[in-house]
Amino acid sequence: MALNTGGAAPTERGLHAQVLAAVGEDIVDGIYPIGSVLNQDELTARFGVSRSVLREALRVLQSLGMVEPRQRVGTLVQPRHAWNLMDPQIISWRGRGREYFVQQRELLELRLGIEPVAARLCAARITDAEASAIVAAADTMVDANAAGDERRFLQADIAFHSLILRGSGNAVMGHFSGTVEALLRTRPRERRGTITEYTSPSAHRHNELAAALGRREPEAAYRWSFELLSATLEEFIAEG
Q1: CB-based contacts of 2: which residues, under 8 Å, 6+ apart?
Q2: Which of 54, 88, 130, 167 qualifies as a FRET site for 40, CA 20 to 30 Å off?
Q3: Which of 46, 41, 116, 36 is nearest to 78 (CA)?
Q4: What is the overall mean pLDDT for the chain?
Q5: CA distance 205 to 224
Q6: For 22-40, what is the HEC assignment?
Q7: What is residue 28's predicted lDDT score, i.e. its pLDDT?
Q8: Is there a contact between 17 and 25 (Cβ–Cβ < 8 Å)?
Q9: Would you say 207 and 188 are in contact if contact means Cβ atoms under 8 Å apart?
Q10: pTM of the model as a whole
């Protein structure tokens, strides 16, 4: 990935962000394989940046578990099991490359273990205002689907799932909403578009889940959440 050098000169912070994204994506895509050493002289020449900018980018990659500096060796690319795979930055990088469908499957399998339970808790704990917001998000998804408005559909989808996770009253589940949002934001990168032949039945399931939450029916909310995510998982397995 080359840096964008068009227009005004980027600030040091902007250069840092560009280098970080470029090296992160290259590690994810295997251009820098696991166990390889990142040559800092080559990287500063490649990106035309100072060593301080590069070191800052490498420090972030280290915090994500993707690289590790070793004395007398250099900065090593770490095995995938060391990476923080639920960090929004890594989710974004994986979503841009060849691992898009793999990541969708992996995180949907994880969501199946979390979001139905969150929906069950949410049904028992949310306020009337929160329930109304969830219903409004589901209604917006239906309207956006009918209008073919992919951006509006995506924003409503993010709001819908975030409201349920936060409405569970469980702080850890609420924090997981950031992971779900990062995953959903990779959807516009699909060649086929965000709205597909799967979208109408998916919008229906979102509405049924919202209705169950509005009626304060924990088991129905669990069932519709599980069905919604299961169907989405099957979609990505078929597409991938």
Answers
A1: 22
A2: 88
A3: 36
A4: 91
A5: 7
A6: HHHHHHHCCCCCCCCEECH
A7: 96
A8: no
A9: no
A10: 0.86
Closest CA relative to residue 66, chosen from 108, 26, 110, 106: 26
27 residue type, one letter: I
Q: What order of strands is seen across the sheet that includes strand 67-70? A: 37-38, 74-77, 67-70
Q: Quote the tokens at residue 194.
A: 């965000």
- 78 and 38 in contact (C-beta within 8 Å)? no
Answer with the residue of higher pLDDT: 235 or 61: 61
